[in-house]
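Hi V.,

You were right to ask for the full record rather than a summary. Here it is.
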Amino acid sequence: MVTPFGLRHSLLVYRLQRTAERLDMAQALTRPLSPLAVAVLGPIPWRATGVATYVLRMHQSGRRVAGFAQVLKRPSAESDVLVLAPSLRADSAAGDVWQRLLTRCAIEAGEHGVQRIFASAAADGREVDVLRQVGFVPYTQETVYRHASGVQITAAPVAGIRAQVTSDSWAMQRLYQMVTPPVVQHAEGALESENSGFPTLVGDAAVTLPGLRDEPGR
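Predicted structure:
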């Protein structure tokens, strides 16, 4: 059974977070907080940039199985899967646990106006296979470079390069539409409104969950 996180689940999440799989590269690199801390101290779920945590407990093949998921709400009608536990390598039942948790997250997200859910996963990992089984579709792949510690970088000013200002918005929108494949624009919601700006994504590989909204002609 999948239920929203409560303080009674603290010990369970604390134990499972040791083998959790992080599916949001940006959060993992820039805000490496423990899932338990996020669940207890995070903003109200599905409001503004709130984090929703769901816990699963069930019996399978004669043994107890447990897991949890965390989803971050973006300011827009989008969300990111932050964490799923246990990892697929830690428990043979993890695939089924992930499917149940992700299904619940998708239902809750749709009820709160979320139209797209993103997750980052290695393109050649088992994680992508499980995400596909619950409706996620790969739409883009990105490479993340890490700056080695202790290496000093100095950069001289380059003529013609400056910080972006508000008056650049129209030109940046046109550039985004010219160089970004239409399928990616659709997945990121850019085709829904030309005045909504253009998204910025980071991650290793991203997938989006369709079917959370009705669209004419589909």
